[in-house]
Amino acid sequence: ALCAGLSALGVAMASAPDELMGMWRGMMIQVDADGTIKQLLIDDYGAILAGGEKGTINATVTSTDTDITFNLETDGSSVAMECKWALDGDNEYLTSALIACGGPGHGNVDSIGSAMSGHGPIVNYYTKCADSSTDECQFLPPDALKTQVQTPIDSSSTSVRLGMEVQLGYTEGEYIFEFGDSSVTYITQASSDKWTADYEFNDDGTASWTWTDGPDSSYVGKTSTGVWSAIEGMETKTTYVGLGAPGTCVDTMSEAMDGGIVYQIVECSSSECDFSALAF
Predict the structure, then answer these.
(1) Which of 13, 59, 216, 270 is placed for a possible disulfide with 70 were both Cys, Cβ 3.0 to 4.6 Å?
(2) How far apart are CA 146 and CA 271, in angstroms?
(3) pLDDT for residue 130
(4) What's the CA angle centered on 197, arms 195 and 203, to 5 degrees?
(5) pLDDT along the chain (280 residues), means of 10
(6) What is the per-residue pLDDT for 244?
């Protein structure tokens, strides 16, 4: 009861609130984001951050119900990174959060919205399994974290979206999507492999995805059907597309999570969010 009372008063706690505990996977979404895929583990002992140019970093954590500070242990010294955080929607399997930071040694940010303009602040869009004890959603453990730093592509597009695969057993699946009215082109950020597909997202929540080109010929020409749903967040709209394996069908997101393909696709929904620098 004491800890709950301190949190309500905005007093810093020794660790993070329960909502922030767990294994998170995400990406930067501010205007000058560089396509870096992030991994974040927060537990009772602190935090482990990975995916930046410094590789894996340990940190201690203090937080309130709106602010979180990561005291980064790097290069033999401790640097404070002060951030704002907020949950940003969930569904049966996944929970999303926004964490906006001034950057190491640059102080706090006024709000998540103001940090979206970039040029110093960073905004990470993170996702974790809503219940990591289930067999249908398991994110990579800390010892499997990878560093993937990408270079932004200087172009212009209003249809650019960021995404990743989140089904059980995925090992890598970070994408940049460009959507047309009925077709989509997307590349993997790590290798720049390009895929194309025709898609349908129907009003009844069903979806189809027909691969028309890509690096794996076993996908090309095959149609997978499944389901889709969308969540409106503070700065973004997130669409979940659950499909059967190439050439197969699933009726539920649960089936897609275990044996199929699930894309989590993030698009900007506010004037402060812009992915166009990542166009290809």
Answers:
(1) 59
(2) 32
(3) 78
(4) 140
(5) 27 58 80 69 76 70 84 75 86 84 70 79 83 64 34 37 71 79 85 90 90 94 92 83 93 87 86 78
(6) 93
